[in-house]
Amino acid sequence: MKTFTSPAELHAWSREQKRLGRVVGLVPTMGCLHEGHLSLIREARGRCDVVVVSIFVNPAQFGPSEDYDAYPRREQDDLALCEGEGADAVFLPSPADMYPPDASTWVEETVLAKGYCGAQRPGHFRGVCTVVAKLFNIVGPDVAVFGQKDFQQVAVIRRMVRDLNFPIEIVRAPIVRDADGLAKSSRNAYLTPEDRTSALSLSRALATARAAVASGERSAATLEAAARAETTAAGWVPDYVNVVDSETLMPLQEVLPGASAMLIACRKGNLRLIDNTLL
Ligand code: AMP
Question: Which of 110, 135, 230, 266 has a CA that sits 20 to 30 A from residue 60's CA?
């Protein structure tokens, strides 16, 4: 497995892979890898000849009062996990490798990025789109794999890829959960055992919504109210709970089975968790 910190060196290596006729896959991450990330690497392995994993805690997607400095970093473990999954290359740039000190160009999707996490975290998706566009230019992948865990992020990136003509297939891989239902996240490391137990209210609320839809419930308001009640009772205050069109992310009044999702974000003190389900 190769490791790169230099964008130019990775670019040259990736070009050579393409010249040799290989299909190149990219899995962008912020590291502290868990089974969710590894499932994306496996997905890319199954579709591509060579797989590049990027590990970069991107300062541009963190707000000034967010957890950039505290974000968990575990480079050596991450490298071993990538190697174990058969990644061909890992890209570990520093912020200085990625951003010239006077960088003044940003990539911004202006519609899908507005609501939900975009409303709660101003500038977040601008940072995400900018770094992902840069990674796309550096690696030139044929396929890039993202997790459904960040539902809005995949929708925003798909729109960016369409709007800016990146010749890249975007794959959305399913959410990997712990056995009790909690969606795996690097930020779960911040949870005390009590927080972790109460955090199960998010996945429970989503499972309840799925079951209600299976039994014929179609009212978004009814489903959202039940989900809010479930997390609130467990001490998790909803930032948002919305039934949305799974492609446009527009809020829906009525579930369109097979074309809808429920998105949820909750806070407890400084903690913030997101989760979602297709309906
Ligand atoms: P992050 O390191 O949090 O930026 O995540 C990197 C990629 O892994 C993103 O595409 C996430 O959506 C994806 N991811 C994170 N957690 C999970 C999970 N539990 N299941 C599937 N994909 C995930």
Answer: 266
